[in-house]
Amino acid sequence: ARKSGISIGKKGGIPVDPWMRTEYQNIYAAGDVAEVKDYVTGKPVITGLASTALVQGRIAGINVSGGNVRHEGTLCPFVVHLGEYEVGCTGLTSSRAESEGIRHLFGRFRGPDIAKVVPWSSSIVTWLVTDHAGKLLGAQFFGRRGVWARVIFCTLAIMRGVHLTELEGIEFGYHPLTNPVVEPLAVLAEAMSRKYKL
User: Are 42 and 118 within one domain?
Assistant: First the structure.
């Protein structure tokens, strides 16, 4: 990129606009080399994630072919499998919100990952981060199962500007072997709404 004269951004990647174009209209960049906008902070970021590279590559490909699709920013959603456990995150953590100077609210809840009557049920820990008014900015999860689905759900919720009071009232599908009848996300959202008087 440097040899071609394309500028290098603050994070060491190639800055792109929402159409994945570089500073040169007919040159596009996506994936590990692209410096895109963080969906929450608006600051440049390089994700290094296959899932976000796929989305960016799709958008670049459509636009190279004459389409008009925008990339509105990334939440860097990811899931890691560690032995029997899954860890997942999307959007801001509380520590990152603090370091960015964003006024935020934070909550944590440990609840069942599937119905408690199932012998192999375990727990899932949920962390939620919102702005000072209760709009969802980030979510993190740790447990044996169901982390990936909650990461996907919260990624969409953040991008749609979902508020805690909406999250606590959302209907979740239920089966004893897949999730608890009372979703931990909804329990935490309601607890935070009450605690912070939203």
Answer: no
